[in-house]
Amino acid sequence: MRVSRVQAEKNRQAVIDVASRLFRERGFDGIGLKDLMKGAGLTQGAFYKQFESKEDLAVQASGRAFEGATRRWSAATGESPDDPLGAVISMYLSPEHREERMDGCPIVALGSDAARQSTEVKASFEAGIRTHLELLNGMIAETDEKERDGKAMNILSTMVGALVLSRSVNDPHLSEQILHAAADSLLAAASAEDTAGGAIQ
């Protein structure tokens, strides 16, 4: 039965949504097309009607994952508009975010995988990372652009590294300590600086 253009686009978006979550859980190479399409309630035969290749899907799914991450940051800052940077740090370095492997930060879940992917997939990651840095820049009240950029990079790198480490150990106490140490360090540095008010738009 022929699928309408509207339904075909809905199916395509559903596959991107599912791939965004499953790639973060299993890695780009940790799941095949059959299981990806099954997760979206579709057959493998429909894949090539919607995407040029698995790499094409990886690009689209990476972008979707970063969109979700941006919304998460926006929600956090919306709940704490007087301290947006503190809100993002606390949300990101929380046990809840650590456990959200399918819906959490794509940099943590797929960063090492992305480094081994095509230039197109890496370009999608680069765009997402740049967006994160821009958002952090907007929360740092610093007149010198170079210094502000450096602080944003330091904050993002510290958060990503801490979350990676916290997910990499068996000892729950050690995992918590890693998160707390990074959060305490960043929050202390943030409190020593004047941060810009207002939530991420």
UniProtKB/TrEMBL annotation:
A Pfam family of this chain: TetR_N
A GO term for molecular function: DNA binding
Alphabetized PROSITE patterns for the sequence: HTH_TETR_2
Key word Transcription present: yes
InterPro entries noted in UniProt: Homeodomain-like_sf, HTH_TetR, Tet_transcr_reg_TetR-rel_C_sf
Tagged with keyword Repressor: no
DNA bind region: 32-51
HTH tetR-type domain sequence ranges: 9-69
UniProt keyword terms in alphabetical order: DNA-binding, Transcription, Transcription regulation
Name of the protein in question: TetR/AcrR family transcriptional regulator
Higher taxonomy: Bacteria, Pseudomonadati, Pseudomonadota, Alphaproteobacteria, Rhodobacterales
